[in-house]
Amino acid sequence: MYKALSALKSSPATRTSQNTATKPQKSTSVGKLFEFQSQLPKLPVPALSETLPKYLSTVEPLLSKDEFAQTKNLVEKFGQSSQGQELQRRLEARAAEPGRANWLEEWWNDLSYMGYRDPVTPYVSYFYTYKDDKLRRKPTQRAAAIVRAAWAFRAQVASGELAPEMVRTTPLCSYSYNYMFNATRIPKRPSDIEATYDLGANQHITVARNNQFFTLELVHDGQLLSAAEIESQLDRIVERADSTAAVPVGVLTSDNRDLWADNYELLAQASPQNAQTLEKLQSSAFLLCLDDTKPVTREECHRTYWHGNGSNRWFDKSLQFIVCDNAKAGFLGEHSSMDGTPTCRLNDYVLDQTLNNKVDLGSTNVRADLSEPEALRFVTPPTVVRAIEQAAGRFSKVIGQHQLRVLQYEAFGKDEIKKLGFSPDGFVQMAIQLGYFKMYGKSRATYEAAATRKFLHGRTETCRSVSNESVAFCRAFEDNAQGVQGKLAALQAAVKTHGAYAKACSEGKGVDRHLLGLRLVLRAGEEKPEIFQDPAYARSCHWNLSTSQLSSEHFEGWGFSEVVPDGYGIAYTIRKDALIFHIAAMQNEFGLNSDHLAHYIKEAATEMRATVLAAKLAAAPKL
Active-site residues: which are they? Predict the structure, then answer.
């Protein structure tokens, strides 16, 4: 049941597959946002002589001496073989094909996302938890401000005036911004498709309330609705929705993708009205979900934004802003065509604008001639109702199988870690490693997402966080006979190794995407190389820890699921003065315990800081 992009790009007139090089119709790909696209380098194909030794260094800490000797023999054999050289030649030829933006793109999108058949929630989508807005305690008031801020960001994307993201002086690829607004995933067998719609022709949002959907046009008589007008319209929606009940069609989007694909056709064919309703919903700029819940604890908030009740959502939409009845708010992103960094930027902008009262709210007057928001009605014959009931049952079962713990660690954050002399991300990764080691007595394969967006259409590479140095660090910290100087040296070595590997990944020089490419250029009937039949390869790709960092001072955390049944999904935020961990896992025969892992990560972080301070104090000159 675990992870994996293809795509239908849809405007009212056209639909094309994202797996072609065709750009979305809605973007002219001009302006400041796209000014560096033609200059971006293509994702490289590393040399075998570079990848294979690096691969060995990542599997060694996971294997016994005998296992490693066997793996080393197979890897060296592959590197010297004519088959290995031929697969490398094919991959290099693919990368050099005229018109191909990225040799990995189509494969990765299909394998990791569009062809992946388990529910997008909880297994693919990710969410952000917002800080409270102390200026806006009324839910529809806060929602209106969020809409205005998001619309301002959308305007910059549409015009191309949004500055491209940069890492120091290096521009990042802006291609995924084409799939941010007015976009949706559509279920298909055997692989889903991505739909995009023209921004100028579709200036409406979809509002969900009480498992019902409404269209809210944001432009009236050529003028954008003010926050006061949006709030007034949202109040009308809440009043209407809360006074009626409807079949919860949205829960269909929570289902297995093949089942949803079948039910999508069933729904669309049940009535011509349904096809029109789907088109209106899918073409909207984004979804605004007005939940009737009042989450209080961190876990309640995270569960609300991660999956909610399964019905007051349309999980295929690229962007869903969620506001609860106590004005707590968050965001849910569909992952297939966009990784977290662009939506992190969007949400950071929205929160900076609203929490700091920078957002342009427009006039306080509400025009009297605003049209009533349109209710999006589905015709639901018994066959559709039965499908909805079954999907709701499966959603409840899947969500019920998951445990979640949020660790809000407030002893220190980014500023203190830097004062200690460490990379914040490397330090936190080692805290996770040590916490896991404390709990299980060993290290297991760990995935950390590393961005490769400095390359054209780049997405991610796997930063393998477990190294010989990280294992030595864990052992040193669990050895009572080891002094603080020895522990400090082990921590420094582990963080240094992690940083070097992370840098290589950002340069397109990790091992996982390259090895995947070598596997995928195999032709039908050709023998699979022994390196890929080796149990060590499967073990090193079985992500018992799937981790990723996205940070904003405006977030109270973010999250996603585990990627294997016996593993944990750990999303973390590094703020100036705090660390926030979302730790998700299944409740199954493997005996996983998110509460216990949170305890050990907290213990590890505390010990690491104390050890560094003690070592520095001991090394300081005596007066």
Answer: 335
